[in-house]
Design a protein that fits this description.
5-stranded mixed β-sheet; 5 strands
Length: about 160
Amino acid sequence: MSTDWGQPTGQHPSEVSADLLQRGSRSRNGFVYQDRCIVLGILRSLQSGSLVAVDVELATDVVMWTADHAPEYVSIKSRESQQTGDTGWTWGAIKKQRLLTDLFRHWDAGGRSGTITVWSNADLEGPATQLGKLPEDPAKIPVNLVQRVAAQLRARK
Protein backbone atom coordinates (compact mmCIF):
# COMPACT_ATOMS: atom_id res chain seq x y z
CA MET A 1 0.00 0.00 0.00
CA SER A 2 1.38 3.37 -0.90
CA THR A 3 0.00 6.69 0.20
CA ASP A 4 0.06 10.25 -0.95
CA TRP A 5 -0.92 13.21 1.18
CA GLY A 6 -1.59 16.52 -0.39
CA GLN A 7 -3.41 18.57 -2.92
CA PRO A 8 -4.53 17.07 -6.22
CA THR A 9 -2.54 19.68 -8.13
CA GLY A 10 0.26 20.47 -5.72
CA GLN A 11 -1.25 23.94 -5.38
CA HIS A 12 -1.48 25.82 -2.12
CA PRO A 13 -4.67 24.85 -0.24
CA SER A 14 -6.02 28.41 -0.41
CA GLU A 15 -6.38 28.01 -4.15
CA VAL A 16 -9.01 25.31 -3.64
CA SER A 17 -10.43 26.42 -0.30
CA ALA A 18 -14.02 26.33 0.85
CA ASP A 19 -14.65 29.91 1.93
CA LEU A 20 -17.07 29.61 4.83
CA LEU A 21 -17.75 33.32 4.96
CA GLN A 22 -19.00 33.79 1.40
CA ARG A 23 -21.14 30.83 0.32
CA GLY A 24 -24.02 28.83 1.77
CA SER A 25 -23.94 26.44 4.66
CA ARG A 26 -20.78 24.98 6.12
CA SER A 27 -21.73 21.48 5.04
CA ARG A 28 -22.33 22.62 1.45
CA ASN A 29 -18.97 24.37 1.44
CA GLY A 30 -17.34 21.05 2.26
CA PHE A 31 -18.96 19.62 -0.85
CA VAL A 32 -17.84 22.61 -2.92
CA TYR A 33 -14.27 21.95 -1.78
CA GLN A 34 -14.65 18.24 -2.60
CA ASP A 35 -16.13 19.00 -6.04
CA ARG A 36 -13.24 21.33 -6.87
CA CYS A 37 -10.68 18.76 -5.78
CA ILE A 38 -12.33 16.10 -7.92
CA VAL A 39 -12.33 18.37 -10.98
CA LEU A 40 -8.67 19.25 -10.44
CA GLY A 41 -7.83 15.55 -9.99
CA ILE A 42 -9.63 14.71 -13.23
CA LEU A 43 -7.82 17.49 -15.10
CA ARG A 44 -4.47 16.26 -13.77
CA SER A 45 -5.25 12.73 -14.93
CA LEU A 46 -6.50 13.92 -18.32
CA GLN A 47 -3.19 15.73 -18.87
CA SER A 48 -1.34 12.44 -18.43
CA GLY A 49 -3.69 10.82 -20.95
CA SER A 50 -4.31 7.79 -18.78
CA LEU A 51 -7.72 8.47 -17.19
CA VAL A 52 -10.18 5.65 -17.80
CA ALA A 53 -12.95 6.27 -15.24
CA VAL A 54 -13.85 8.17 -12.10
CA ASP A 55 -16.15 6.87 -9.38
CA VAL A 56 -17.50 9.58 -7.07
CA GLU A 57 -19.02 8.81 -3.66
CA LEU A 58 -19.00 5.04 -4.15
CA ALA A 59 -16.17 3.28 -2.31
CA THR A 60 -14.57 6.52 -1.10
CA ASP A 61 -14.97 10.18 -2.00
CA VAL A 62 -13.43 9.41 -5.37
CA VAL A 63 -11.67 6.51 -7.09
CA MET A 64 -9.51 7.46 -10.07
CA TRP A 65 -9.03 4.63 -12.57
CA THR A 66 -6.15 4.90 -15.06
CA ALA A 67 -5.05 2.60 -17.84
CA ASP A 68 -1.50 2.27 -16.55
CA HIS A 69 -2.12 2.10 -12.79
CA ALA A 70 -4.29 0.32 -10.27
CA PRO A 71 -7.07 2.38 -8.70
CA GLU A 72 -6.33 5.41 -6.55
CA TYR A 73 -8.71 5.57 -3.57
CA VAL A 74 -9.05 9.21 -2.54
CA SER A 75 -10.47 10.73 0.61
CA ILE A 76 -11.07 14.48 0.42
CA LYS A 77 -11.14 16.30 3.73
CA SER A 78 -11.70 19.98 4.33
CA ARG A 79 -10.69 21.06 7.84
CA GLU A 80 -11.81 24.45 9.01
CA SER A 81 -11.01 25.79 12.48
CA GLN A 82 -14.68 26.70 12.94
CA GLN A 83 -15.55 22.99 12.73
CA THR A 84 -12.68 21.28 14.49
CA GLY A 85 -11.01 23.83 16.74
CA ASP A 86 -7.79 23.42 14.76
CA THR A 87 -6.96 22.97 11.11
CA GLY A 88 -4.06 20.54 11.10
CA TRP A 89 -3.92 16.77 10.87
CA THR A 90 -2.35 15.30 14.00
CA TRP A 91 -2.34 11.59 14.81
CA GLY A 92 -5.27 12.28 17.14
CA ALA A 93 -7.29 14.00 14.41
CA ILE A 94 -6.50 11.23 11.91
CA LYS A 95 -7.71 8.63 14.40
CA LYS A 96 -10.82 10.60 15.42
CA GLN A 97 -11.87 11.06 11.77
CA ARG A 98 -11.08 7.36 11.02
CA LEU A 99 -9.19 8.61 7.99
CA LEU A 100 -6.64 5.82 7.55
CA THR A 101 -9.02 3.15 8.83
CA ASP A 102 -11.72 3.94 6.26
CA LEU A 103 -9.26 4.22 3.36
CA PHE A 104 -7.57 0.96 4.38
CA ARG A 105 -10.95 -0.82 4.50
CA HIS A 106 -11.75 0.21 0.92
CA TRP A 107 -8.23 -0.58 -0.33
CA ASP A 108 -8.45 -4.01 1.36
CA ALA A 109 -11.88 -4.70 -0.16
CA GLY A 110 -10.45 -3.73 -3.56
CA GLY A 111 -7.88 -6.52 -3.43
CA ARG A 112 -5.08 -4.42 -1.92
CA SER A 113 -4.05 -3.01 -5.26
CA GLY A 114 -3.56 0.62 -6.08
CA THR A 115 -2.93 3.51 -3.77
CA ILE A 116 -4.68 5.50 -1.11
CA THR A 117 -4.55 9.25 -1.14
CA VAL A 118 -5.78 12.08 1.04
CA TRP A 119 -6.44 15.48 -0.47
CA SER A 120 -6.88 18.13 2.20
CA ASN A 121 -6.67 21.85 2.73
CA ALA A 122 -4.91 21.15 6.04
CA ASP A 123 -1.30 20.25 6.65
CA LEU A 124 0.00 17.32 8.64
CA GLU A 125 1.22 18.39 12.06
CA GLY A 126 3.69 17.10 14.63
CA PRO A 127 4.83 13.48 14.27
CA ALA A 128 2.10 12.88 11.66
CA THR A 129 4.23 14.84 9.17
CA GLN A 130 6.06 11.55 8.53
CA LEU A 131 3.06 10.47 6.43
CA GLY A 132 3.86 13.18 3.91
CA LYS A 133 7.46 12.06 3.49
CA LEU A 134 7.14 8.39 2.57
CA PRO A 135 10.01 6.93 0.57
CA GLU A 136 9.27 5.21 -2.74
CA ASP A 137 10.79 1.96 -1.43
CA PRO A 138 8.43 0.44 1.18
CA ALA A 139 11.40 -1.25 2.86
CA LYS A 140 12.71 2.21 3.78
CA ILE A 141 9.59 3.33 5.65
CA PRO A 142 10.60 3.93 9.28
CA VAL A 143 9.56 1.13 11.63
CA ASN A 144 8.01 3.58 14.10
CA LEU A 145 5.75 4.92 11.33
CA VAL A 146 4.64 1.41 10.33
CA GLN A 147 3.85 0.70 13.98
CA ARG A 148 1.91 3.95 14.33
CA VAL A 149 -0.17 3.26 11.22
CA ALA A 150 -0.77 -0.33 12.33
CA ALA A 151 -2.03 0.98 15.66
CA GLN A 152 -4.37 3.34 13.81
CA LEU A 153 -5.71 0.41 11.82
CA ARG A 154 -5.78 -1.86 14.88
CA ALA A 155 -3.77 -4.35 12.84
CA ARG A 156 -1.49 -7.06 14.17
CA LYS A 157 1.71 -8.50 12.77
